[in-house]
Design goal:
Length: 224
């Protein structure tokens, strides 16, 4: 995965939470990282042997592949709803192949498509259907759900989900982002002590992450 740029400059919290474009553009690299993780899941979970031994799984995976291409090209409508050339769309794949790993993965992609299209309630619905214990994919999708809750104005739920995602990931590449996002939301809610705690976790647990270099500014602001 490409190295992420430092996007953790101090920001206007109200503006970040009100404007969906701000939130998703600010963390676009993280969203792209989710795609990489999902592709890994396709290879690791399904596997070539499953394609051969389970015709239904093979058919579902073949259908999923075209959707992944649309998704990678930011054509989220086509990825979600299909095209006129025979591709059914993630929604139909998730429904018709619900008993397969590919159908499960289609739920995740459908949720990400809805998130990118600004349809946050639908995004949460499908992201919540995805089931996996993968150390990267599951927390990344949980973090996306947290962002969706923020866009829906459910700020307490957003902060709690982001903190849970950070804990589940326990990763210097993901957790600091979620902790800082949660802290910003907690500040907006007036829960500054909880925000400081989130920021301090970045400093103590992920001291080698690039986000930790600026974390004192967040701690100082929330401590006032």
């Amino acid at each position: 995965m490409a190295e992420q740029k430092n996007t953790q400059d101090p920001l206007n919290v109200d503006e970040a939470l009100v404007t969906s474009e701000t939130f998703f553009l600010k963390y676009k690299n993280l969203m792209l990282g989710v795609v990489v993780g999902l592709v890994v899941v396709v290879c690791a979970v399904l596997g070539y042997k499953n394609f051969i031994s389970e015709p239904k799984a093979q058919k579902a995976s073949e259908a999923l592949f075209k959707g992944q291409q649309y998704f990678s090209n930011d054509n989220f409508e086509a990825a979600l709803n299909g095209d006129s050339l025979g591709y059914a769309g993630f929604l139909k794949i998730a429904d018709e192949f619900s008993s397969t790993d590919a159908g499960n993965l289609a739920n995740a992609y459908a949720g990400l498509c809805y998130a990118q299209l600004g349809k946050y309630e639908e995004a949460v619905k499908f992201l919540d259907k995805f089931s996996a214990d993968d150390y990267f994919v599951a927390p990344a999708l949980m973090g996306t759900m947290g962002n969706c809750y923020a866009q829906m104005g459910q700020l307490d739920k957003a902060a709690a989900t982001l903190l849970k995602a950070a804990d589940k990931a326990d990763s210097p590449s993901l957790s600091p982002n979620y902790l800082i996002q949660a802290g910003q939301i907690l500040e907006k809610l007036g829960k500054n002590a909880e925000a400081v705690n989130a920021y301090r976790q970045v400093k103590s647990k992920y001291a080698n992450s690039y986000q930790s270099m600026d974390i004192d500014k967040y701690i100082e602001r929330a401590s006032k």
